Each structure stands twice: as C-alpha cells, then as structure tokens.
Amino acid sequence: MRIDVLTLFPEMFTNVFGSSILKQAQTSGAVSYQVVNFRDYADNKHKKVDDYPYGGGAGMVLRAQPFFDAVDDLVKEGQVKPRVVMLCPQGERYTQKKAEEFSKEQHLILLCGHYEGYDERVREYLVTDEVSIGDYVLTGGELGAMVIADSVTRLLPGVLGNEQSAITDSFSTGFLEHPHYTRPADFRGMKVPDILLSGHHKNIEDWRQKEALRRTWERRPDLLEEKPLSDKELKWIDEFTRKN
C-alpha cells in the first residue's frame, strides 16, 4: 500500500512514521509513506496557500489550486485511482470498519486542512472521502492523518506478528475486546481467573466471548443496538441484566 499525506507541517510525521510498527511495516515493504508539503505546489511568488473567503467572514480558506496540482503530480497516468481522504470535522466519524475498508486500497492520499477550512471545490471535485476522528476540532488535520495511517497500516498482511491480533481487536468483532492477563498468576493477592489456567481451550474461548460481550454491554451498549446476537449471547445479556 502507498499512503501520501499533504500537509503544511511535514516535520510532524517524522517520528510517527519512523518508529515502532509503522517503521517496520515500511521496512518490510508492506507500505510506503510520503509526506508532501502542499505549499510547494502554490502557483504564486510567495507560496501562499490560503486567501480571504468570498462574501467576507473571519479566518482564511485554503485555496483549491495547491491540492489539485499536488494530487495530479502524485497520481500518474495509468495508476490505480487513489482514495483521496479529507480530514475534516464535518466528515463521517472514523471507525474500525472504515479502517478495514481503507486497508484494502492500494493508494490513499490524506489531506490535512487548517484555518477555516478548504475551498469547497476541493470537497466537491477532488475528495472521495471526508473523515473526522471525533466530535471535536483540532488545529489541523495532521493528528487525524496519523491516526488513519496507523490504524490502516496495522491491518495490512504481515504487519502484525500474529495475524489474529487484528481480527480479534476491539470493534473488529463488533464487541470490545475481552480482558487479558499475563504472569504472575497471583500478583499482590490479585489472581488470574481460574478458567484461564485450566488449559481447557473451549471453556477459555467461551469465557473470552462472554467477557467481551459483558464489557461491551457495560461500556458501549450502543455497539449492540444493530448487531445480530446469537441465542447464547442474548442469554448472557439476560444474565448480566439480572445480576446488575
């Protein structure tokens, strides 16, 4: 996969893309990152990328020209058409499902906005997706772009050491993830559940499914509203309700 980022602050990405799993993914060839300063594409003497809004009003608006020219330069004739993703508070809320969808693409271009926003023609004629990482406003789209790059990269084949890790993540299954424990079995009197020490794989798997459902029911019941549940899961929810 190829991930390009258009930003006014490319230095913000140096440590993120050069560390941990993202660095390993790039070294292995699973992904390539390119961070581009779209100011370099400004068509005026002073490399100005923003201007006053038509009709008046506070703040400045990012001009369309640098974005269009930058994307034209990044996408050569004959290449697969990329998903061009605008980081924007007005976009759809980013989810694990969206990350999984993006991970199947060959090429993503992430646009990081600033000021009062983008010239509307960028949204109408250039962008394929508008995404927000939450219901709040940041100073720019860079942090959102980092979130998307990280969440997508870890889903690529061969990036995580254990391929099951991404499959069983919170949200990938529709539930929050079950509790985890490691050694020692008894730490300051706080003990690991006996079932995890039993060696009975079927019972352990049932326990994990039940605890994942319990955690979701307690913390994020909204995730269960549209999810089809089995008879066994419905029975567990009835048990949780009665005990509660």
Instruction: Give the overall silhouette.
Output: elongated
β-strand number: 9
CATH architecture assignment of the largest domain? 3-Layer(aba) Sandwich
The residue-averaged pLDDT reads 94
Biggest sheet features: 5 strands, parallel
Structural class: alpha/beta
pLDDT < 50 stretches? none
CATH topology of the largest domain: Alpha/beta knot
Number of helices: 9
Oligomer: single chain
Number of domains: 2
CATH classification, class level of the largest domain: Alpha Beta
Terminal residue distance: 47 Å
Helix content: 25-40%
Element-by-element helix/strand order: EHHEEEHEHEHEHHEEHH
What is the name of the CATH superfamily of the largest domain?
SPOUT methyltransferase, trefoil knot domain
Q: What's the Cα radius of gyration? A: 23 Å
As a percent range, the share of strand residues is: 15-25%
Q: What can you see in these coordinates?
A:
The chain is 35% helix and 17% strand. It has 244 residues and is of the alpha/beta class. The protein has two domains: 2-153, Alpha/beta knot, CATH 3.40.1280.10; 168-243, tRNA(m1g37)methyltransferase, domain 2 (Trp Operon Repressor, Chain A), CATH 1.10.1270.20. A hairpin with a 2-residue loop joins strand 8 (186-187) and strand 9. Helix 4 (96-103) packs across helix 6 (142-153) and helix 8 (201-219) crosses helix 9 (231-243).
